[in-house]
Design goal:
By secondary structure, this protein is an alpha/beta fold. The chain is about 25% helix and about 15% strand. Helix 1 packs across helix 9 and helix 2 runs parallel beside helix 3.
Length: about 350
């Protein structure tokens, strides 16, 4: 098996002879997050500075052929069943509908979703559905125009709302919304967001703000916790635990006023779901990460462009995931934020 640059072992035990992406803690990664670009057309203040970032050079970004080859290896040799396209903003990737069609033509066919800010999606929703995209998650932190512009530094709320409606009309359901609450910015609008989602049949997920900003300005003391989110929503709604099986999903799900409407709260920091994590990650420049917060990553682009076989690449990927740590260690002394920001890692 090829050497694995940058992969840290969680155990000295030898890896068993299994084709799956197993780790030493008994987890099996079947969910692949693929970043298509680090570029974004919003400037959310909890993610990046107003002037943006130094984007990856085009020569560093994997080509469509390279991406498809890695995803083929993942589903054919490694047991991946679900793929989510992320960014940056994935809609900025040229020819994305064609790439989606190539991914959904893989055997075995993976379930394919995408996380997007929605800008420009409305006019492309039907084409994505026809290409085989199964559903989307749309990032939306406020349904108030002024607050949306304050957070994103762009006056584009209408485009995001249109994307949500178009996704539902195209059958890309369930349509999910990802929201982050910021203290003294939009926390007072938590119930407005939930009311909006319930009225339109969208599935809302609140996510605790994580230390993945490019500015490294995250502060635990200002983070709105899952407990606080629950309390904010409870001022207007009655929340009871959902009977649905959680499995490896990150969200704690709650019935709203007895159901059938639900809301999810993802306690990534205060009640992390690491023990049930099923994810493996691929950056736009071809690095495999065993965890969103990994300090190490493994370069598959070098193997791709160096003539490695599919089995060599699969073996390297397996070795990386075997070395996955027990958890992200945010709540441990000495935790260091990843050098890459979220826009470079992929959500």
């Amino acid at each position: 098996m090829p050497s694995v640059p940058g992969a840290r072992s969680a155990s000295t035990r030898p890896r068993p002879d299994s084709p799956a992406l197993i780790d030493t803690f008994g987890r099996v990664a079947t969910d692949l997050r693929v970043s298509l670009t680090d570029k974004c057309n919003l400037r959310c203040n909890y993610c990046m500075p107003a002037e943006g970032l130094d984007w990856m050079p085009d020569t560093a970004v994997l080509s469509d052929d390279e991406l498809v080859r890695l995803m083929d290896i993942a589903v054919r040799l490694l047991g991946v069943t679900d793929i989510r396209l992320t960014g940056g903003e994935p809609l900025l990737r040229p020819g994305l509908e064609d790439l989606v069609a190539r991914i959904t033509a893989l055997e075995p066919r993976p379930r394919l979703s995408m996380t997007t800010n929605g800008i420009g999606f409305a006019k492309r929703a039907r084409a994505f559905a026809e290409a085989g995209l199964d559903r989307i998650n749309v990032s939306l932190d406020s349904v108030d125009r002024e607050t949306f512009e304050l957070i994103t530094r762009r006056d584009r709320l209408r485009h995001v709302l249109d994307a949500l409606a178009a996704a539902r009309e195209a059958g890309l359901e369930p349509v999910k919304i990802n929201a982050v609450l910021l203290r003294e910015v939009n926390e007072h609008q938590a119930t407005d967001l939930l009311r909006f989602a319930l009225e339109h049949g969208y599935h809302l997920r609140f996510i605790e703000q994580m230390p993945l900003d490019a500015q490294h300005g995250w502060d635990r003391s200002t983070m709105i916790t899952a407990g606080e989110i629950f309390d904010l929503l409870s001022t207007e709604f009655t929340l009871t635990p959902s009977p649905a099986e959680r499995g490896g999903a990150p969200a704690e799900r709650w019935l709203v006023d007895g159901g059938p409407g639900e809301v999810g709260i993802i306690p990534s920091v205060t009640r992390p779901f690491c023990s049930a994590c099923e994810r493996t990650r691929l950056t736009a420049d071809g690095a495999v990460r065993s965890c969103l917060f990994s300090s190490d990553e493994t370069d598959l682009r070098m193997l791709l462009r160096g003539g490695a076989s599919d089995e060599d690449i699969a073996g390297t990927w397996r070795a990386t995931m075997w070395g996955k740590l027990a958890g992200h260690e945010i709540n441990e002394a000495g935790f260091a934020q990843p050098l890459r920001p979220m826009s470079s890692i992929g959500g």
